[in-house]
């Protein structure tokens, strides 16, 4: 896939089990048996990706909920979601 942009629509991959634990989100991939942990804004991002949305929409929500300027939120969200995509935890749609 080419570089992610704010116009890409992203959603969680099916087949992942996730649960909140001590302020984090702990996930397990049924397909590969790997465990993952997300905290802070990463947990909130995971929660928001339950439904498909553009990264621009995701950034708008995160910017409204956290004290972060839009440019920083966009850069960090593109980086983080890119990592989730590389791990196979989310997909574009």
UniProtKB/TrEMBL annotation:
Q: Which InterPro entries match?
A: PQQD (IPR008792), PqqD_sf (IPR041881)
Protein name according to UniProt: Coenzyme PQQ synthesis protein D (PqqD)
């Amino acid at each position: 896939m080419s570089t992610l942009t704010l116009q890409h629509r992203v959603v969680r991959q099916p087949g992942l089990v996730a649960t909140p634990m001590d302020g984090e989100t702990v996930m397990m991939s049924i397909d590969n048996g790997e465990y993952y942990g997300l905290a802070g804004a990463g947990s909130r991002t995971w929660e928001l990706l339950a439904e498909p949305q553009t990264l621009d929409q995701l950034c708008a929500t995160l910017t409204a909920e956290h004290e972060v300027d839009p440019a920083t939120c966009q850069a960090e969200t593109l980086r983080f979601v890119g990592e989730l995509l590389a791990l196979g935890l989310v997909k574009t749609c």
